[in-house]
Amino acid sequence: MLEAKNVSKSYGNRLSGLEVLKGIDLNIKEGEFLVIQGPSGAGKSTLLHILGALDNPTSGEVFFKGASLYSLSEGERASFRNKSIGFVFQFFHLLPELNALENVLLPCLLMSWRERKKASYCARALLERLGLSNRIRHLPSELSGGEQQRLALARALINKPLVLLCDEPTGNLDSENGRKILGLLRELNLSERVSMVLVTHDPDIAFGASRVVHLRDGMLASE
């Protein structure tokens, strides 16, 4: 489904630059739940952003179903991200002036009126599934941390992505809400067959994953 080939990422110049990723080769299979573990600064978030076409590699390639992502124009990559990739971050990135339903529908703004109407029904169903049916008209500031993360998850799922990329999705939550979010992710992986890549520094999160890889100093250290 998603493949990184010899991906490297550096910042700065050759003399004083920082090499964050060093020749990463990684395959994500359809329906897989892959966990990428490693300490802070290992390059986990950078790798996730490159896999999701949010950032360009310095060298190497990323393929989605055999097609090179970085041979696409910026507009084509934006369309690819909107249709095929869902993102869940440690910080929820919800728009404070929009209510829960409006935040979920943000990825649907470019749809036709008829498609947006259908998406609105899907958004309500998602919010109900995630236990937020009574929070549809609430602003993010009126929600708990766990509710905000579930709302961000609903937004990531509204366009029915083929791959869900999760960057420390429990990092801002207490242990109980963190377990609930992980349970929801595993349930979605099993029921919807959404491929998932989750990066974390927490070794306990690996429970239930299809596969775990370890990233250290910008390189895959073990699997």
How many beta-strand elements?
10
Question: Quick one: overall form?
Answer: globular
Strand content: 25-35%
Helix content: 25-40%
Instruction: Report the end-to-end length measured between terminal Cα atoms.
Output: 19 Å
- Average pLDDT works out at 88
Largest sheet, in brief, is:
6 strands, mixed
Count of discrete alpha- or pi-helical segments spanning 4 or more residues: 6
SS class: alpha/beta
Contiguous low-pLDDT stretches (5 residues minimum) are: none
Task: Give the spatial strand order of the biggest sheet.
Answer: 6-7-8-3-9-10
Q: What's the alpha carbon Rg, rounded to whole Å?
A: 18 Å
H/E topology pattern: EEEHEEHEHHHEHEEE
Topology:
Layout: E1 2-11, E2 18-28, E3 33-37, H1 44-51, E4 59-64, E5 67-68, H2 74-84, E6 85-89, H3 100-104, H4 113-129, H5 145-157, E7 163-167, H6 175-192, E8 195-200, E9 211-216, E10 219-222
Parallel strand pairs: 3-8, 3-9, 6-7, 7-8
Antiparallel strand pairs: 1-2, 1-4, 4-5, 9-10
Helix pairs in contact: 5-6
Give a short overview.
By secondary structure, this protein is an alpha/beta fold. It has 6 helices and 10 strands.
Which key features would you list for this structure?
single chain, 223 residues, alpha/beta, six-stranded mixed beta sheet, four-stranded antiparallel beta sheet, 6 helices, 10 strands, 27% strand
